[in-house]
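Researcher: Here's the sequence for the chain we discussed earlier.
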Amino acid sequence: MWIFGYGSLTWKVDFPFCQREVGYIKGYVRRFWQASEDHRGVPGKPGRVVTLVPSTDPEERVWGVAYCIAEKDIDRVMAHLDHREKDGYQKVDVLFHPQNTELKPWTLTIYLGTDTNPFYTGYTPEAEIATIISRSVGPSGSNAEYLFQLARTMAAMGVEDKHLFTLEAQVRNILEAS
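Model: Thanks. This is the structure I predict for it:
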């Protein structure tokens, strides 16, 4: 079984896996449109984490990391990830395109926060998201730390993500000014 990480699963891998591949899925954009009361915020003062939103361009790419879960670990890993991604995420199967062009694309599972869950915020101006992120802290740490780690990971992979890097710059400016 394969799982695709496009947020914290790109850098916070707390489960066993037997293979890792960098690559992308098509038809989505990464957005900080998912409220987090369980990891990067608290009830009444949620932070923001990423979800994927359908793109108007079916060729739009979201880069991330695919992890192969060994047969013997599937039940345990899925139970762990179901708990970790509990606030409004559902499992969806998508086609993954590995960066290694010697490998053919394959179907894998992603956790997706859709507009049908209570934690989905929908479009929010980036300046407002940056303010929320700069002030939010939850059981897993500061929301800014989540943003900065995701930006570092994507930058190291050579990924262009205007939304992510705009928020990174805005949050850094807010934190430096305070």
